[in-house]
Each structure stands twice: as structure tokens, then as C-alpha cells.
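Supplementary Data S3. Sequence and C-alpha cells for construct A.
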Amino acid sequence: MATCKALEFAKSKAGHDKDEIFIILYIEDEYVYLVDGKSRSIDKPKKKKMKHIQVINRIDHELQRKIEANITINDEDIKRAIKLYVKEHSQI
């Protein structure tokens, strides 16, 4: 099973959200809680089994900086991070 950390990017491998990019909000046993800032907000994360995601070993620096400075992150921060990640990787 892949190890993962909070705030890492993840790609859904199964379900109606297959191939969507999320950020791991937190981990609980074999489940991860995913957010995208739109359909899955910080207040209502998607619970998914770890085996149904592909962990992308990357954390958005701005999100990490805010967490380390004890600044609350919001859905806009999540959307920005995912948008930048997708933009960067769609040019490859």
C-alpha cells in the first residue's frame, strides 16, 4: 500500500471521480479524506480507500507554508493549488 501524507496531491483511480486530482486533507486508517475546493470542500471531504487513489508525492508549497505558520487554509487555496498543478502538468 502506498504511503501518503496530508496535503499531498492524489489522483482518483476508481469511482465516478476517476482521474480527478484532489489534495489529501487527512488520513484515518485505510481511508483518506480528499478535497478539491469545489464539489469536495474542506467542510465535506470525500472519504476514499487508499487503494483507490494514486498518491502524487508532491505538496503545494503555499499550502505547506500556511499550515506551518498556523494559517487556516480554505477552499480557494485548495482550488488554486490544484489549478496550478494541472496547468503545470498539462504542458508535458
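Construct B, processed identically:
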Amino acid sequence: MEVRREREECLWRSLPPRKLIYGRRKTGKTYFVRNYTEWDHYYTVSRDGVVYDEELNELNYDVFYERIRHQTNKKVVIDEFHRLPPKFLTFLQHSSPNWTLVTSTLFLAKKLLSSSSPILGLFQPLRFDIIDPADILRALGSRFSGPELIENAVYLREPLLLNFPLSEPLERRLSLAVPVASALVGEIFLEERREYSRGYHSVLRSIAGGYTRPQKAARFLQGKSFYIHILREMGLIKAVRVHGQKRYLYRHSSPLLDLYYYLSAKYLYEETGTFKKEALRTLLPIHVEWFVEELLSEIHSLEPVKVLNPELDVALARGKRVAVVAEVKWTDSLSSTELRKIEEKLAPFRAKKYLVVKDKSGIASTKLNVLDASDLLALAREHRHC
């Protein structure tokens, strides 16, 4: 299945010709550049330093260098350029204004854009993450509807899941993808030239296992700031600011990787290799919350924050002011009593208020904007990145 990356297309068009495309492994960078941009020559560098041209001819570095230095007037793409010798960075100072660099790193990419880098200011960065919520909803809107649309969109933001047949039930596709997720983490660390140590594994497992409340997180993460910093720089975890406090909560950037580490933490998946349906049932409502948060954040151009008193599913802020609040009830039914409690819970906030449910038929509220899958799809279709 193909997903149009409208967010990245808009950003691409807004940047000058020299571009540095970066992001962790398997986020669709190569596919995007190959299929949605114009280029004359496309080179890919393997891990052992061998360069392949667009016709898959092997080139050693010397042959590649001689060829490319005569192509300064061409549109050239160099994929995984960070695998080339360091001296190539110096050569890039004299490169064509129409060259594009691609790298499957975040931590290293930021070093390449730092004040000590020879290419500082020459290449404008464009970061690739998992697929934008609005983009995936637009892509899936003709294939799924109702709760099935949202549940598929939540996980299909991870591009590697697009390789599994959509005719299979979501649970089946996820059970097949979880082992791939394990290998993906290894690839990410390998590309970032870091050893996937027990310390990193422990932090990733614990974040998925429930160390997301401030007090728990503070106790567990004490002395682990180095791991947290690196994992954030690598794009594996993200931090959400606790509103009104100088603290952050951490969570996995990818729902698929969160599922993998949750299975590891709660069900010893690495030892048993058994996919537990209970894990998906537990995590799915939480992952839907993350999806709704990011979608509404993008639409309203607001920062996601965590409000703890009362604890809200979704809160978006502009500076110190909470401007949007939402509760996500991903259950088959919602009683009138539960609806009133949600209205009372959100009443103190002078903000736009949403309630997101599986099916809004029969739910009437004058105090909340009630949304279901069809409404979220409509919001995604109305929203444009440029």
C-alpha cells in the first residue's frame, strides 16, 4: 500500500535545493526521495562502504568519487551518505546546489549539522518520522471505516506494517510484525553506531511497562539520564511536558515498538515468542489516545502536554495556557452517567473540549464536541500542511 506523505512533500518544496533527509530506519525516506522527487543520479552506500548507482552497479569509493565530482551540474542523491569516509564531508563543501543527502540516523545527523561540521549551513534538514496522522487517515479512508479505520491508522503509521496484507486482521498483522520490530531496533542502533546495551533495553522495556507517572519515572530514571537523552536523540522515545511543572513523561514514539516492549516486559516475549492478545487489548485504547493527541495537535498547531489534576487523556497548550482538552473513550458503549462525569471533569477548563468515541450515535452533549472515526477522517481531509 502507498501512502502520500503530504507533510513531507510540503516541507520538501519549502526548502532550498540542497537538502539533508534524516530519520531512523524504515520511516520511508528512500521511497519518498526515489518516487516523489526529481533526480538524475541516485547512489546508495552499503554498510561496508560499497556504493551502488541507480542501476545497481557496484562502485568502490575512488570510482564513485571520480564520477560524482564531474556531476556537479546534476541532481544527485546520495543515500546513507554517512557511511562514506569522513573526507567526503569536506568534498561536500564544494558540491552542487542540487544535491540531496539521505541518512538513517538522527543522533549522527544532528552532529553533522552542528557548529563543528564542515557542511554546517550548506544542507537544509528535513526529518522523517513515522507517518503523519492526517496522511495515514487520508490514505486508509477508502479502505476502512468506523473504529477499524482508527485502529489500523494507529499502527500503520509505522511504514514497515504496510508490507503486510491489509486483508489480514489487524491482530494477525501485528503478531507478524512484532518480531520484525525487534530486528528494527537492532538496525537503528547499528546505524547510529551504538551498542544496544542492557541499559538501553531496560529503559525501553520499563517505559512500555508503565513507568510513565512522574513519581515512578523519577525513581526509575534516576541515574539513567544518559540513556534517556540518547534514546530521544535517536527518535525512539518522546517526552511530554507535565503542565505547570518542570518534569516530563516519556513514552515510545512508535506504537508498534511500544507493543513489542510491553510484550517483553509483561509476557516475557523475548523468551517465549508468544503474542498475547491481552497486550493489544490493553494498549489499543492508549495508542488511540496518542493518535488523537497528535492529530489534534497538528490541526490546532498546539503543544501536547500532560495534565495530571485531573488526569486528562489529551491536553494541548499554547505556552502556559491549555487551549484544547479531550477524553478518549475507546469502548463499545458509553452510558449517560459516564458522559456526565466527562462533562464535569472537563468543565473547569476554558478550552475547546472534545470527546472521542468509537461511535457517536446516541451520544448527545451540548458541552463537548463529540467525534468518532468519520469526524476524525473529515478533519484529516480538511487539514492541509501547506
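The chain has two domains: 6-127, 133-382. The radius of gyration is 22 Å.
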